[in-house]
Each structure stands twice: as structure tokens, then as C-alpha cells.
């Protein structure tokens, strides 16, 4: 018996349920703070005269500050309480007296409604803390300023919470001022271990209700689409189940990455074929000794890096060689200089530890940013690589070391602090070094290379994804066009690979070799992007099979974890580079800049540049919003 009629009935029932439930999710409160006084200032910072503006609130009231989500917008809403607080002293000071509760009058409701203050997060220009930690300024893009007084808590708590919903950039001129750069997707701050990447599996109704909660409008319209398809096919069961709904669905022009001319394949660049590439043996003790001089300095650096790039490093040497690769120790130092530098570094690490360990409970209570980061580190430490013997079991001292290093790095680079994913990068380093100071300074060197991946603005991640799309369009235009036509041309399903440099995709031994190759900087900048494309090209048949859509592609990419041939991918990535290098004059400018190749100035290269633009996934003006929405739809 056909199952389509039953499925159609279920879908129809779910759509009816959605029609009732969806109203609940139109506006959602995500934060509130009671006892907040707010007043509007003119552009010179003085309070407006009572009669100078119709918008001025003549009664300064204590109210509740809310952060609300509506569709994909976020708003700050201030609602006054019924008790009015009359100012009976100098109008420029905050002296609140004569609190009274007026008798209820229907007209009062209208007055209170008129006194509500709505601020769209996108209209905020900056937030500025005042010397008194209870007060701050909200500066809007139209030059409006609100003076805000948090009576029942300090403004730092608001800033700490607000960072979960907005991208804040600290001013270089004032440590108390934060510029608002837009909204953020709060789910992006979760570690990938917590993300529900396989939500498509499981019970139909449970899956529908979860999707309805996460994205009600898209889920409802998707259900309508499935129901329509079943009806159109005469309920014969011939309707093909759809994958995840289109990322672009429901987004106006300018809200998403625009896919241009995805139906036609990019003309071939006419490149010469790829050469064959072989891997070599790892750096041996004998080879290392040939580079190490009697005084401790390291010579013939280029040859050394070539050997490491070709075959990695013998495990017995990693403790020493990694310190050089990660800029803990410069190659030029002799034995005495290296020992002195290490002594100084150990002392500096101990100082950093003392700084965060000396915080009293009272200090932590008043320092919400420190407190929140400390809590996040503690949570991540307890779930980082616990299947490895080195971190297994309760009361494991190595977990304490992991925690100490991450806390010290937070003090070392307080502007960046701690972001989930950093513990993934530290874990192999600590297992190798097996002591805190050396592991810390190697981790610092690694973070200096990858810091952009963890910036709240996500500029580096966006740039890498665009570069990846550019290279894929050149190396495998058929796969690139397929992905463009199936909601995946932005390559956001590669986000995890780039964020933690494939840490979740390979065994510990494999990832050590892969990272060593990347750290050499050979054969070009951004070699890790070619490594990505090598994996995608290897899996192209599976990706393109059965007309797979976004959800199927994402599920397949995540199923590759611990099932990728390390050496085969390194060989293929190197062969790709050699092919591109041999045809550099034919490449678009963006590809040359990405790989550090000389940019051609001849007419044919310019023509290829224009040809590439006609088929490439390019960001619209509102790329920040598009990035967050697409990541949300891809990973949740």
C-alpha cells in the first residue's frame, strides 16, 4: 500500500499545528533586566528640556530592559513600571524621590505604552560604560543617545549578556566603549560537539517540532511544499522527498550570497594536467642532527622545512622541533640563548597563572566577563578528548593542566579571551609536551596563526570560504556548479574543517602530521584550502549521487570523520598546487593572491577573471547577515 497518503495527512496535520504554534515564536524574549532607568539625551550629551521634544519622557521611570528576537531581528525594549519616579532636584542629576503608585486609569495604559522605548539592534552604533559601573550610554546611528542606569546590577552584566546577541568591537581609543557591528548567531558559539548535525534522523514529528522551534517560517513553508508535491503527484507516492529547504528561502535580495549563472558550467581554463606526487619519509634523528650545529643553532632552514612538508616529523623529535615550527624558539638561537629564553618564558607563564589564580571570589563576582570565560573553559575542558588515555578518568591532573593553560591564555590575550574550539587545538600539543609552560608557548604560536578563526566578527572565516569557493570553481567546475545548484555553493559545510583545522576529522597521529605540513608554510599560503578541495574532489561522486541536497551533503561530509586517507589527500592537494602554479597566467587574480602566485597582467588572465566572476558565488552587500543565517540553517 502506498504510504504517500498517510505521509501527506501527517504533513497536513503538522502544518495545521504549525499555524497555531508559529505565533508563539514570532517574538521571543531572550533577556530581561529589572530596575533600569533610561533617559534620552541630545547630541551634546545634555538632557533635553521637557518642552523641547515630543519624545522626551518627562517622568523618569524605573522599568525593565528586554532583548527580544523577532524573525531574524533583535530589539532592545524598555518598558516602564507603573510606579512613576519624579525628579525633584537638579534636573541634571539622578535623585529619585516621592515614589507613588497612581490609581489605575485606562488613559495611563496608553501613556505607558507611549513611553516604551524600542531600539533595533541594527540601529545601535555603540555602547559606552561610564565610570560608575551601573551606568552606560546607548549611542544610535541617528545621533540619538540614551543614558541608562542599571539600579539592580552593573552594566558589565548587560555587556556580557549582550555579547551573546551582538558583535561588539572594543574601541581602540576608549576601553569602555564598544562598537556594535551587527547580530550574531548564538549557536555559532557552541562547540561542534554540541551541535545537532544529524537532526534529520529520527522521528518525523519530533524532527518537525524541533525544526519548527529553530526556524518556524521556513519549516512551515517546507511542509506546505511537501504537501503540494504529494497532491500534484496524485498521492501515488511518486513525489520525491526533498532535502533541507533552500538557504535563500525567505531572504530578500541582498540578504544572502548571490549565486550567479550556476546553471552553465564554467568554460575550462585549458590547464595542463596534474603531475604525480609522492610522499617522503619523516624527518629522522640523523637528518635533524645534520641541520643542528654544534652551538645549537639550526641551519639550512628551507631544506629542513621541505623535509617536514614531504614526510612530517619522527615522533621522537616532535618535542624539540615543534618549538621551532611554532615560533617558541627561533632557529638562530644557540644553546645558551635558547635556555635563557625558555627560562624567561617559564617565568612569564607562572606570572600569568598567578594573575588569574589570585582573583578573590568577590572580584570574580564583580567581573562577569572573567567569570563567564572561566566557566566556559571549565565546561570545555571536561569534554575535550576524554576518550584519549591521557585525558581519561576523573580527577585527571592533565585536565587541570589543560584548564590552567587555557585560563593563562585568556590572561595573555584578554581581547580574544577564550572561544570554544581552542581546547581542540591545545589538546595534541599538551599530550606531546606533557608540561604546562612549553605547551602554553607552543599553543600561543599556533593561535598566532589561527587567531582569525575565533574572532567574533568571523571575517577570516568568511574570507577563507570565499577563497575556497574560488579555487573549487577552477579545479572542479562541475562539482562547484552542482553545489551552487543545490544550496551549498557557499561551502558552509566545510566550516568545521577550517575552524579547528581538521582536528575532528583525523586521528591524533594523523592530525599531528597534517599540522606539521601546514606549519611549514609550504608549498604556498593557504595550503589547507587545497587540502579541503582534495577531500571534496575525492568524495565528489558521493556528494553528487542521487541529486543530493544540502542536508545530505552535510550528513555525508560529517560522516567522513576518521575515514579520510591522510597521505592521499596531502598528495592530491600538492598536485593541485603544482597544476595551478604551472598555469598561473590563466588564473583569476583572487586565486593567485590566495596561493601567493604572481598575478598576470595579460588580457587572457583578465578575461578569465571576468569569466570566473560570472560563475562564482559572490557575497551581497549584507554578507554578515547571510553568513549567520546560512551557518544556522546548515548546522542546526
From TrEMBL:
GO terms for molecular function: GTPase activator activity. It is found in: Cytoplasm. SMART domains: TBC (SM00164). The keyword Ligase does not apply. One of its GO terms (cellular component) is cytoplasm. The chain crosses the membrane at residues 12-31. Pfam families: RabGAP-TBC. Residues 312-522 form the Rab-GAP TBC domain. Keywords: Acetylation, Cytoplasm, GTPase activation, Membrane, Phosphoprotein, Transmembrane, Transmembrane helix. Its main location: cytoplasm. Acts as a GTPase activating protein for RAB7A. Does not act on RAB4, RAB5 or RAB6. Interacts with non-phosphorylated form of RAB8A; phosphorylation of RAB8A at 'Thr-72' disrupts this interaction. Interacts with ARMC12. This is TBC1 domain family member 15. It comes from Cloeon dipterum.
Amino acid at each position: 500500500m502506498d504510504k504517500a497518503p498517510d505521509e501527506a495527512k501527517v504533513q497536513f496535520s503538522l502544518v495545521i499545528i504549525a499555524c497555531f504554534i508559529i505565533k508563539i515564536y514570532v517574538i521571543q524574549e531572550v533577556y530581561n533586566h529589572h530596575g533600569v532607568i533610561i533617559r534620552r539625551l541630545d547630541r551634546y550629551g545634555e538632557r533635553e528640556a521637557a518642552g523641547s521634544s515630543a519624545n522626551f519622557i518627562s517622568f523618569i521611570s524605573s522599568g525593565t530592559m528586554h532583548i527580544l528576537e523577532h524573525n531574524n531581528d533583535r530589539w532592545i525594549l524598555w518598558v516602564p513600571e507603573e510606579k512613576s519616579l519624579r525628579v525633584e532636584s537638579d534636573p541634571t542629576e539622578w535623585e529619585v524621590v516621592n515614589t507613588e503608585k497612581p490609581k489605575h486609569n485606562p488613559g495611563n495604559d496608553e501613556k505607558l505604552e507611549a513611553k516604551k522605548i524600542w531600539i533595533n539592534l541594527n540601529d545601535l552604533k555603540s555602547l559606552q560604560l561610564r565610570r560608575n559601573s551601573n551606568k552606560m550610554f546607548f549611542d544610535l546611528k541617528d545621533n540619538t543617545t540614551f543614558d541608562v542606569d542599571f539600579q539592580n546590577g552593573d552594566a558589565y552584566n548587560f555587556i556580557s549578556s549582550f555579547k551573546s546577541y551582538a558583535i561588539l568591537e572594543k574601541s581602540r581609543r576608549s576601553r569602555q566603549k564598544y562598537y556594535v557591528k551587527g547580530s550574531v548567531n548564538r549557536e555559532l558559539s557552541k562547540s561542534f560537539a554540541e551541535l545537532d548535525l544529524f537532526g534529520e534522523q529520527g522521528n518525523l514529528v519530533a524532527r518537525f517540532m524541533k525544526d519548527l522551534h529553530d526556524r518556524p517560517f521556513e519549516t512551515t513553508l517546507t511542509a506546505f511544499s511537501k504537501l503540494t508535491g504529494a497532491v500534484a503527484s496524485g498521492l501515488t507516492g511518486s513525489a520525491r522527498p526533498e532535502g533541507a529547504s533552500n538557504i535563500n528561502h525567505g531572504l530578500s535580495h541582498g540578504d544572502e550570497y548571490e549565486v550567479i549563472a550556476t546553471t552553465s558550467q564554467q568554460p575550462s581554463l585549458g590547464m595542463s594536467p596534474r603531475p604525480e606526487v609522492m610522499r617522503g619519509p619523516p624527518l629522522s634523528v640523523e637528518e635533524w642532527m645534520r641541520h643542528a650545529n654544534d652551538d645549537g643553532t639550526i641551519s639550512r632552514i628551507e631544506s629542513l622545512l621541505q623535509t617536514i612538508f614531504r614526510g612530517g616529523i619522527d615522533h621522537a623529535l616532535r618535542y624539540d622541533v615543534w618549538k621551532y615550527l611554532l615560533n617558541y624558539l627561533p632557529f638562530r638561537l644557540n644553546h645558551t640563548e635558547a635556555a635563557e629564553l625558555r627560562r624567561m618564558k617559564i617565568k612569564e607563564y607562572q606570572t600569568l597563572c598567578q594573575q588569574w589564580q589570585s582573583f578573590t571570589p568577590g572580584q570574580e563576582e564583580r567581573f562577569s566577563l572573567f567569570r563567564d570565560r572561566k566557566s566556559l573553559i571549565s565546561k570545555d575542558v571536561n569534554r575535550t578528548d576524554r576518550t584519549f588515555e591521557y585525558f581519561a578518568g576523573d580527577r585527571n591532573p592533565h585536565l587541570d593542566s589543560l584548564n590552567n593553560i587555557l585560563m593563562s591564555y585568556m590572561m595573555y590575550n584578554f581581547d580574544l579571551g577564550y572561544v570554544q574550539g581552542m581546547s581542540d587545538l591545545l589538546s595534541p600539543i599538551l599530550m606531546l609536551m606533557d608540561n604546562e609552560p612549553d605547551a602554553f608557548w607552543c599553543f600561543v604560536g599556533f593561535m598566532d596563526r589561527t587567531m582569525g578563526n575565533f574572532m567574533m566578527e568571523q571575517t577570516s572565516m568568511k574570507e577563507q570560504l570565499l577563497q575556497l569557493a574560488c579555487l573549487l570553481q577552477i579545479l572542479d567546475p562541475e562539482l562547484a556548479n552542482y553545489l551552487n545548484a543545490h544550496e551549498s555553493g557557499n561551502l558552509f559545510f566545510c566550516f568545521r574543517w577550517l575552524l579547528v583545522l581538521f582536528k575532528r576529522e583525523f586521528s591524533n597521529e594523523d592530525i599531528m602530521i597534517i599540522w606539521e605540513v601546514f606549519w611549514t608554510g609550504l608549498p604556498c599560503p593557504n595550503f589547507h584550502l587545497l587540502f579541503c578541495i582534495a577531500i571534496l574532489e575525492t568524495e565528489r561522486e558521493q556528494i553528487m549521487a542521487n541529486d543530493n541536497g544540502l542536508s545530505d551533503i552535510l550528513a555525508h561530509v560529517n560522516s567522513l570523520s576518521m575515514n579520510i586517507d591522510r597521505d592521499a589527500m596531502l598528495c592530491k592537494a600538492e598536485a593541485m598546487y603544482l597544476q595551478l602554479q604551472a598555469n598561473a597566467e590563466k588564473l583569476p587574480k583572487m586565486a593567485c593572491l590566495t596561493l601567493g602566485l604572481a598575478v598576470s597582467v595579460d588580457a587572457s588572465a583578465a578575461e578569465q577573471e571576468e569569466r570566473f566572476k560570472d560563475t562564482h558565488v559572490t557575497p551581497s552587500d549584507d554578507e554578515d547577515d547571510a553568513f549567520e543565517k546560512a551557518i544556522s540553517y546548515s548546522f542546526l
